[in-house]
């Protein structure tokens, strides 16, 4: 197995990246983590207060598309692994403005790959791994049955997923063409602490607490497979250490839900915690215009990572969602902070205020 000594994490101030660092750093004493993040609306250093004093941790504010900066970090820190989270990640934003998705997700990944290749070919380090964090959305959409496997052809439907698929193909090409030791993970929908309240679960929690309308797209019968972000973090660590370079690993929770059922569940959990009469929050549900190009169903087979690397999720959904609801209730200051300013502008464009 591969055990890195200095990991460059990109996008480590975002939802999954920060959860990954909070897990990985204490679990791997002796390994340094350098977090490169440009701090867009989605990046928040408050997600990292648990590690900021750790001498093995360093934050660098900057752009993955800045080749000189990336080159300097790789060389000076003697990086032997890159775990690449940095991206524009929200589908609705990609419909409103696709350009930044191509710039960050496609061009940014290309810069990281190119600098990684030069660093690795320079012989400065003995071993190297580039782990690219991707999504099940690159496979497109499923009907009522079936699962995405690692062999499912890529068929992205949104500007977001198209930009992620573009990055996946560049990662593949750097392996085929240059022999760069890359790994790709494709995970289903994550939930848990520090998720920006533009995504379904934290948005619904936020609006239920505030007594605001709960915008359910279309008929609410789109299906997503939900995985706790801590389980995603252990999957990434497992693939980084044990995966064979050049390979793709799907990651999922085997946990499919209709959107409307998730919203009902959150309403009921919060009614209980807020001491509201049963059924009250469900009254906030508002069916709104469907997302353009809205994928009907995602379902992922995580059989390969289980079979080859022995990874399995540890959270049940029942426990994970209850803990997540409690986390958002206990961390309202975090939510207030990230929902000010530019978030409001976006929210108003997407939902027309409310
Ligand atoms: P996020 O939007 O919460 O965080 C993205 C982070 O990347 C932010 O901290 C942001 O500041 C940073 N970033 C953006 N552009 C950058 C740039 N040019 N240079 C440096 N940093 C930059 O996203 P997330 O939900 O944590 O997702 C992380 C990764 O996981 C993404 O690549 C996403 O495609 C993938 N993914 C997400 C999910 C999910 O359910 N959220 C599921 C599967 C895969
Ligand atoms: O207000 C809403 N109402 C609603 O019905 C929002 C925000 C979403 N939805 C629906 C759309 C989707 O069917 O809920 C489902 C989940 O939506 P998102 O939270 O936006 O996630 P999704 O589009 O499935 O993409 C997510 O999972 C895969 C992440 O945002 C991606 O980064 C990841 O790649």
UniProtKB/TrEMBL annotation:
Residues 8-324 form the NAD(P)-binding domain. It catalyses: dTDP-alpha-D-glucose = dTDP-4-dehydro-6-deoxy-alpha-D-glucose + H2O. It is an enzyme of class 4 (lyase). The keyword Amino-acid biosynthesis does not apply. Pfam families: GDP_Man_Dehyd (PF16363). Its EC number is 4.2.1.46. SUPFAM superfamilies: NAD(P)-binding Rossmann-fold domains (SSF51735). GO terms for biological process: nucleotide-sugar metabolic process. NCBIfam families: dTDP_gluc_dehyt. Belongs to the NAD(P)-dependent epimerase/dehydratase family. dTDP-glucose dehydratase subfamily. This is dTDP-glucose 4,6-dehydratase. It comes from Geobacter sulfurreducens (strain ATCC 51573 / DSM 12127 / PCA).
């Amino acid at each position: 197995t591969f055990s890195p000594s200095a990991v460059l994490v990109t996008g480590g101030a975002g939802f999954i990246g920060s959860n990954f660092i909070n897990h990985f750093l204490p679990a791997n004493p002796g390994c340094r983590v350098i977090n490169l993040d440009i701090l867009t609306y989605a990046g928040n250093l408050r997600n990292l207060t648990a590690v900021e004093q750790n001498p093995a941790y360093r934050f660098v504010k900057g752009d993955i598309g800045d080749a000189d900066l990336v080159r300097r970090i790789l060389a000076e820190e003697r990086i032997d692994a890159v775990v690449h989270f940095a991206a524009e990640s929200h589908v609705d934003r990609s419909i409103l403005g696709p350009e930044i998705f191509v710039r960050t997700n496609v061009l940014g990944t290309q810069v990281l790959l190119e600098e990684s290749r030069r660093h690795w070919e320079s012989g400065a380090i003995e071993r190297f791994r580039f782990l690219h964090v991707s999504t099940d959305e690159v496979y497109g959409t499923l009907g009522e049955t079936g699962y995405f496997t690692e062999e499912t052809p890529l068929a992205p439907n949104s500007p977001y997923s198209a930009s992620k698929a573009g990055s996946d193909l560049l990662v593949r090409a750097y392996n085929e063409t240059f022999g760069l030791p890359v790994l790709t993970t494709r995970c289903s929908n994550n939930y848990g602490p520090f998720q920006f309240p533009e995504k379904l679960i934290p948005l619904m929690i936020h609006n239920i607490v505030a007594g605001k309308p709960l915008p359910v797209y279309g008929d609410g019968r789109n299906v997503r497979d939900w995985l706790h972000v801590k389980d995603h973090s252990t999957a990434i660590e497992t693939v980084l250490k044990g995966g064979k370079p050049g390979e793709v690993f799907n990651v999922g929770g085997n946990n499919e839900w209709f959107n409307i059922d998730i919203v009902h569940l959150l309403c009921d959990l919060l009614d209980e915690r807020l001491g509201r009469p049963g059924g009250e929050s469900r009254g906030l549900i508002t069916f709104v215009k469907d997302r353009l190009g809205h994928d009907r169903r995602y379902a992922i087979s995580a059989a390969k990572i289980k079979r080859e690397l022995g990874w399995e999720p540890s959270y049940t959904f029942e426990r994970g969602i209850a803990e997540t609801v409690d986390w958002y209730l206990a961390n309202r200051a975090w939510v207030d902070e990230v929902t000010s300013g530019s978030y409001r502008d976006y929210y108003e464009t997407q939902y027309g205020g409310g």
